[in-house]
What does this fold into?
Amino acid sequence: PPTAQMAASRAAVESAQASGARDYAGAELEAARQKLELAQQAIAKEDHELARRLAEAAEADARLAQARAN
It folds into this structure.
């Protein structure tokens, strides 16, 4: 499973939340959360490639949310 990417994605989402993204980039933050949840579901189904791609997209969305919040 893409454990390193999942960890990076979770950290990016948490960092975005801490930076106030909920107030300034709520849509991007919510997209990141949803993709992270879908990635977790893909891991449960052992679709590791899909999980990796979703986790990467979640990380990108979270970083965008954080950038808009700053």
In short: The CA atoms of residues 41 and 51 lie 8 Å apart. The longest helix spans residues 48-69.
